[in-house]
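Much of what follows relies on a compact textual record of a protein's fold. Each token is a code from a learned vocabulary of local backbone shapes. The record below shows the convention in full.
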Amino acid sequence: MPPRIARRAGPALLLSLLAALVSIALARPARAWVEVHVAGDDVRLSLDRAGAATVEHKVTLKISGGPLRALDIRGVDPDAQIEPGSYVVPSKAAAASSLASATPVALELLPPDTRLREDGTRRPPTLRARFDGRGLSRGVFVLLFRYRTDLMQRGLIQRDGESASISWTGPLWNDGYDAARLTVELPAAPDEPRHDEAGGSDAGGGEAGEAPVTLSTLRRLADQDELELLRPYAPKSEPLRWTIRADARAFQPATAAAPPGADTLGRLADAAAAGADRGRTLYLAGGLALFAFYSALVALKAREHERLARAAGAAPRPLIPIPLAPRAALAGLALVAGVALELLLKDGTAGAALVAAATALAAHRTPRPERAGGALRGPGKWLPVAEAEALREPPRPRGVYLDVSTRAGKALLLALLAALGAGVHAVAAVSPYHAHLLALDATALLAIFCTGRLAELPPDPAARPVAFLRDVARRVKRAVKGRAGAAPRAAAKAAGRAGSRAAKAPAGAAASAATTTPELRVVGRIRIPDGSPDADELRLGLAPRAALPGFVSIEVGVVYAPGAGGAIGLPEVLLRVVPGSPCERAVESLAKSGRSSRGRRPGERVLAFAPRLPTARMTAGIAAALVRAVSTPPADVAPTRPQGAGAPRTPRPRNKAVSAAA
């Protein structure tokens, strides 16, 4: 029996494994469960004198499960023209009037469905709202969207003598909800608008033939009338039809000839706000102003950068090398077109591409020196200059207003960014999505102020390293002074540990160390080419008051190498000594960390030290260590060491500090 069970267990196990593999292979990804309920729809209908209307919906959605990727809204106006700026926001943020957590919504009007419903009527138009990204998760949200429709052209505004009947039907919702609200904004007219109960008796009511109960509130303003209608309940899967009676003069344009006693200012204001020509004119004027402003900025920046580059002996290089006139015009045109497309289209990709093109047209690359690099310079003389005169701040260039490295450039850039921020704040109240696009358009300004800077020009070796050498001199002085003050304190501590009998000798050594600490002389060294009155290089000269025989000088210079964003300063410390002198023997151990070469004079040796990083701190560390190494040690007082096996040894940090700094 057991052998027969063992023989049958193999095929059974194989069939089970095969069935499991087939079930795994044919398995489909699980679909997320989502349930949506409409808890409210507040509608605002804004009519103009031509009978065109802007419909704004604030739909409250209760979502269970999720995430919700899209929502179909049935029964919208068939001629709906979707306006940009639709978004969805959590209900708590909407109650607090905060759009910080708002998410843009993509809307599209689906093609009409030609199939008929069961009762033989045509299917209503459908508007689809897509929630990109992760969709909407569980919670309560408020969806806001707007579109344009022409009620006059569709025959929904009927004139009857001195009054007009306005009819509008809302969308169909699968859920019934309480407190259906419609706010109608009408142009001001002598007679006040009112709700027509008889006109809305065929939809959305209670019993057959019974008119729905509608509460109305009227607010009359100087330029418009606002009628708010409220119904206690919106039935399930049934559209709400609203009918309003208004003065027919609200939809009549202003007459050409006004009575003699009419208010002139009032007639002018009504005429200015009567049509869409005024808004189109304002947009056109704004676009022309932006075009002229940005084109002028690009041209002025190009002229300014060319003037400075020519003065520095370099050729300007715009990122797109075309003549200035078409380049400035194309930059302004691309920026205006990009901003317009960002505001008009649902997708901001095309507009952002045009703004990027405007940025490229305004940007500059690092200028290229007109003379080929590597040319040997002519002979010249090195002259000493007082420290205050050599390290004096060079004069600032004048007439540079479009460079972020200057004070005028910083002030102008901040002013323009503040103006842009005000525009972003104003747009954010209407559409957070377009506000973000407008904020990203600041790159067009950054291309003007942050490229073609003074730091990208070929450096003047007699003026550019002033700030760096001043910092190095300050650090070297502080390091030498700190070393001088540390010697007496260290000797006093050693005397206290050695005892009362040995205290006198270290105290004398401390006094000698305090008097023989090297004092530092700092001078500037400039090179004057033969036949030229201007210097072409500046170095920092360092020398202790008492130096070892054979010491010539310590010089700190900066060599500039070309880089992508301008010249890069590479500092170097030079120690000049006489070969075979005590000074050369004192620094022989340091020569391994530097580079040795012949000096500018016969019988002179130069040791060059470069810091690991081109910083003032590391350069000053090398210079200070060299100053201490070439200083004359005390010769009249020999250091006294305590005798005995437990006597402490005098520390010798000199070579270690120099090696680490080098």
